[in-house]
């Protein structure tokens, strides 16, 4: 009954469009060295725009970038002015450092009061024509988008929504990047921790777990208490461990506790180290997950038309965490684990071949490659380095460049062509694309299409 009583939160921002073009901000995955320093410059602001004016209307001529909302302060000076005629490609990478800012609306500290709805970080970009303000947008977070849009989205099954996700979600370093990190080009796929990903609006996490011998403690090392068990599990990038799994679990738990209408999909997709022929380790991991999340875990269900439960059904159950598990035997043992989720992964090395591959999967006439036992499936929208390059080619592009090569085009491809067919889409360095906003807008469009008339 949740959907009937509660306040309507205005989400005008999400749906707003101007007659004649729009502007949006992203964050670059690239970095630059600083002379004579171990630090590097990364996470620079990118301005993107798309002008779509009827022939009788003259298009905007300027974009100004601000460090605060220009609407609220007429004397605010821009950080940067772009003359659009000089940049026909609709994109400009600034040297304004976004860094790792604190999150607005109380979403920074865990445990404080958090305000629902979208919130702006400090950067704004505005379109002008002859110095007349037309429209603006900000770099923003959407911490509660699912529940904000409950009127529109409540009747949609989870398998029909477009859900923004991250690839190798736990492979980040939260502190400032150093040259050493930057040169390890194939290790990190994200530059925000899982808490920050969820607060931005990411709802699908792709996790690969490794099992390692416990850390050596002085004194007791044979006890198998809870802490001890969780210390053995790590988030891996292939065979390299990156972050303790406990950190990711804590972030998801904290987020579900404060964002009480959001649904999160946790995909334990692969187990690259320490699980081969070790069912007891899978079991221990599953038991630990149940202990951490117990009452929040939604049991699998195929729902109407095999598209899974609707958001209303999920909210009514009070259980908002879906855990998919990439080992069938373990799924058979625990009735709350969802069957392995299909990731559509092209193993492509160039932007063009990746887009062709994704286009054939999404727009082709063949059945979508989802696991019939799981209503969810994920498009992996990132490039993959060749093993040869990782090992032998120090001049290879690296994951940051590879993300940069595809992220902008992904925003427009999903927005204009692929949104309707897409369920989950997972990317690298997700702030370099606009897929959270595209997903939210696409879900509103999906809710308006008659064929999605589920009861
Ligand atoms: C507006 O911007 C100016 C220039 O940046 C600044 O000095 C002033 O304090 C701002 N006013 C408000 C109300 O924020
Ligand atoms: C173990 O304890 C000794 C003495 O208390 C200490 O010097 C040493 O650093 C400790 N080692 C670890 C790994 O904590
Ligand atoms: C893990 O250790 C911490 C402090 O060392 C303790 O507060 C916590 O209760 C322990 N958790 C479990 C599940 O044993
Ligand atoms: C990416 O988008 C740009 C701008 O629309 C276009 O010129 C370019 O060809 C696209 N790249 C690929 C690989 O499709």
TrEMBL record:
Residues 1-17 form the signal peptide. GO terms for biological process: lipid metabolic process. The keyword Transferase does not apply. The keyword Glycosyltransferase does not apply. Keywords: Signal. One of its GO terms (molecular function) is phosphoric diester hydrolase activity. This is PI-PLC X domain-containing protein 1.
């Amino acid at each position: 009954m949740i959907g009937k009583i509660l306040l309507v939160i205005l989400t005008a921002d999400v749906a707003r469009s101007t007659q004649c073009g729009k502007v949006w901000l992203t964050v670059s995955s690239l970095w630059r060295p600083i002379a004579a320093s171990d630090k590097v410059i990364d996470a620079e602001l990118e301005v993107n725009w798309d002008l779509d004016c009827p022939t009788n209307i003259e298009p905007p001529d300027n974009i100004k970038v601000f460090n605060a909302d220009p609407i609220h302060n007429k004397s605010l000076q821009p950080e940067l002015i772009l003359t659009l005629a000089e940049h026909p490609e609709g994109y400009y990478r600034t040297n304004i450092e976004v860094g790792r800012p604190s999150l607005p609306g109380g979403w920074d500290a865990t445990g404080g009061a958090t305000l629902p709805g979208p919130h702006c970080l400090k950067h704004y970009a505005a379109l002008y024509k002859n110095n007349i303000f037309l429209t603006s947008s900000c770099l923003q977070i959407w911490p509660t988008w699912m529940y904000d849009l409950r009127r529109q989205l409540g009747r949609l099954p989870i398998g029909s929504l477009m859900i923004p996700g991250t690839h190798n979600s736990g492979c980040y370093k939260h502190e400032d990047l150093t040259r050493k990190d930057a040169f390890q080009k194939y290790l990190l796929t994200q530059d925000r921790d899982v808490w920050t990903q969820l607060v931005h609006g990411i709802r699908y996490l792709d996790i690969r777990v490794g099992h390692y011998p416990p850390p050596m403690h002085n004194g007791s090392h044979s006890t198998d208490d809870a802490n001890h068990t969780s210390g053995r599990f790590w988030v891996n990038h292939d065979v390299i461990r990156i972050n303790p799994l406990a950190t990711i679990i804590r972030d998801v738990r904290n987020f579900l506790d404060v964002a009480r209408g959001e649904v999160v999909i946790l995909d334990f997709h692969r187990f690259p180290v320490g699980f081969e022929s070790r069912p007891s380790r899978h079991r221990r991991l599953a038991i630990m997950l149940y202990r951490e999340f117990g009452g929040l875990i939604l049991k699998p269900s195929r729902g109407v038309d095999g598209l899974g439960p609707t958001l209303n059904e999920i909210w009514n159950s009070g259980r908002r965490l879906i855990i998919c598990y990439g080992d069938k035997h373990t799924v058979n043992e625990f009735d709350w684990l969802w069957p392995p989720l299909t990731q559509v992964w092209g193993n492509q090395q160039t932007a063009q071949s990746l887009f062709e591959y994704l286009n054939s999967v999404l727009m082709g006439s063949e059945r979508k490659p989802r696991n019939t036992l799981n209503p969810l499936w994920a498009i992996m929208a990132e490039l993959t380095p060749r093993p040869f390059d990782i090992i032998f080619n120090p001049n290879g592009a690296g994951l940051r460049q590879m993300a940069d090569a595809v992220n902008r085009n992904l925003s427009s491809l999903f927005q204009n062509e692929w949104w309707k067919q897409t369920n989950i889409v997972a990317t690298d360095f997700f702030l370099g694309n606009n897929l959270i906003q595209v997903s939210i807008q696409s879900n509103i469009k999906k809710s308006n299409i008659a064929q999605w008339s589920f009861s």
